[in-house]
Amino acid sequence: MQLLLLAQDVMINANTLPDSGPLAPPGIGDAWNRMVGVGKWIALGICVLGLLVVGGKMAFDARIGESTQEIGGIIKIVLAVALISGGASLLTFISGGGAA
């Protein structure tokens, strides 16, 4: 019963906690944003290379008359690009670099 009352007090008091905006620790904001940006560009570069490889395989398969089964690879690469871009944007927002 005591645990239930304690949990209730925590839930009631959680609504009164101040809400502060996302803020990077002092001295780390610029370095963090640069690291996220570099990581994003490297990952997107790898995705572009993956699209080139899958596209080349599709062209080769079409030339020799086989059906293309690389559509699944293209879908995976497009989803990877969406995850990379969304993740990098989320990290930048959390660190305070993209807060308006």
Give a topology summary.
Layout: H1 2-14, H2 29-63, H3 71-95
Q: What would you say this structure looks like, in words?
A:
By secondary structure, this protein is mainly α. The protein has helices at residues 2-14, 29-63, 71-95. The radius of gyration is 23 Å and the shape is elongated.
Features:
single chain; 100 residues; mainly alpha; 3 helices; 73% helix; elongated
Short structural summary:
The protein has 100 residues and is mostly helical.
Total count of strands = 0
Which word captures the global form? elongated
Structural class, please?
Answer: mainly alpha
Q: Estimate the mean pLDDT confidence.
A: 75
Uncertain segments: none
**How many angstroms separate the termini?**
45 Å
Rg computed from alpha carbons, rounded to a whole number of angstroms: 23 Å
Largest beta sheet, briefly?
A: none
Q: SSE order in H/E notation?
A: HHH
Oligomerization category of the chains in this entry: single chain
How many helices? 3
Beta-strand proportion: under 5%
Q: Roughly what percent helix?
A: over 70%
